[in-house]
User: Fold these one by one.
Assistant:
Number 1:
Amino acid sequence: MEMSYTRIEVRPMAGALGADIYGVDLAKPLDDATFAEIERAFHDRLVLFFHDQRLTPEQHLAFSRRLGPLSRSPYVKHMDEYPDIIAVLKEADERNISTFGNAWHSDFSFLEEPPLGSVLYAREVPDHGGDTLFANMYSAYEALSEGMRRMLDPLKAMHSGRPYGVGGVSPDLKVSRSIGIERNRPEADREVAHPVVRVHPRTGRKALFVNAIYTTRFEGMTEAESKPLLDFLYAHAIRPEFTCRLRWRTHDLAIWDNRCAMHYAVNDYDGSRRLMHRTTIKGERPIGVRP
Ligand code: SIN
């Protein structure tokens, strides 16, 4: 359904999700009517991209808090002076290393209450490269056959933070030294069960909720038993038709909904510095499909 807006301009960037937002200055406090339109666009497009926003860390934090209380991660070091901000940084001299978020995922899905969303602000980005990709997990779910949906609806899957944001790589591989990952954190290493199909608390729509970094297996099954179906779901969920791509410029800001979108930080900019500031919005325990 085509939505109408009077306070902001919303330009969809791809068929499945994502919108460029114009006509708003996030450095200033937002009136309720403007914020309500941003929220409506957020629930409709899942990923919103605001351009040329000149924000201090305090203004970034103030806008983030409009979306909800902030949460901190069990294993990523926060900034000393801003404990609610993570600096996602890769220095120009860091080559052939793994970077944070460089596999499809929903942020910190291993928490009992995974984050509602994140707010990422570009402080310094390469001339080209360092894009972030997103995939719509409602679309992924809805495109499955009826038989597959019926089978997945009651299932739960286990999630663990042990890969520390760099899924599919050995714990010994070097991760960007700048991101400050702390390993062997009991809160990140344990497994937590979440519904495989999650009902969004605001839209009521069903979304696939498994991801390649943090999901380890289906509840009650081994990793080997789970792998073929999980691999199928991961490949299915990122079909190009379900995705959009953000090409960052310094001072751009994105917000995304972790409950119904996955994302992937492309690590293709060796030789350039990339510094992003991320805040994370607290979420609730995922609700599954009622039988
Ligand atoms: C992340 O939050 O997963 C990182 C996203 C990015 O650096 O583009």
Number 2:
Amino acid sequence: MNISIEELTKIYKNGNRAINNINLEIESGMLGLLGPNGAGKTTLMRILATLMRPSSGNVKVNGLDLQKNRAEIRAMLGFLPQDFGYFAKLRTWEFLDYSAALGGLRNTAERKRAVEEMLHKVGLYKFRDRFAKKLSGGMKRRLGIAQALIGNPKIVIVDEPTTGLDPEERIRFRNLLSDMSREEIIIILSTHIVGDISSTCRKMALLNKGELKFQGQPDELINTAKGHVFRIKAFETDLDKIKEKYPVISTIPSENGWDVEVVADKIDDYPADIIEPNLEHAYIYFMEFVLAQHVEIAEEEII
Ligand code: ADP
């Protein structure tokens, strides 16, 4: 599978440029689309899910044009929108059965088999007779992913699936997605939570203010932060000053005060050790330093 996005732009009626000239090649496997709120993730997801037309640019899915071949592309798609959670008065299995029928599974026996298999996969078989409305938040999300996955879609798009989930459900959800991630399908997972990406996605793309700022492997982003993550040994009295001066990632009590992890280009005012960055460090470093410097340069150029 391949999705090829070329010079894609979406300007809303009020003039908001939600995505700006995005070029991105997506291959089979799981892609994590990361960015802060307002970055343009939902807009991009909705365009890819054929629910919204772009203002300009092209998207090709295995060579098919997204605008001209909407029906064929829709037949390949499973979508879990951000605001998923409305259920008519249907039991859990009925809801999935209905989704499967909408997805084109016409044969009743086949559909029944597919629904049962999916209920097992997402751990909802025990709750199949419960009204979907009465499921817990985490279970509703699992039902959401089940309806997106039923009928073997070739492209699965999930928008902010872990928002509002407790840590246990979040891990469960991530594992479920990575189990589904097979070679021949594309899964696109959009999130503003770095942890959703680090454990599951081999490829990632970073959006900020409608622009694609990074694409590659999480490890490549991590490499950009090497040498820029520090652990400061701080006394209680230093904490406020440190927080003012540096982006702080964590503050952990230590024997004599606090171990404070920060990102910085260098630290010369406190005792500090360089530590190995993880993806969360790298994301913060990228947003606070790499992008901020680009913005400064761009502004100088304008002047
Ligand atoms: P994300 O999913 O990353 O939070 P969105 O795609 O929802 O980002 O939003 C990108 C930008 O587009 C934001 O500035 C948002 O305010 C704006 N936006 C989103 N939907 C609309 C809309 N229907 N009309 C006008 N502006 C919108």
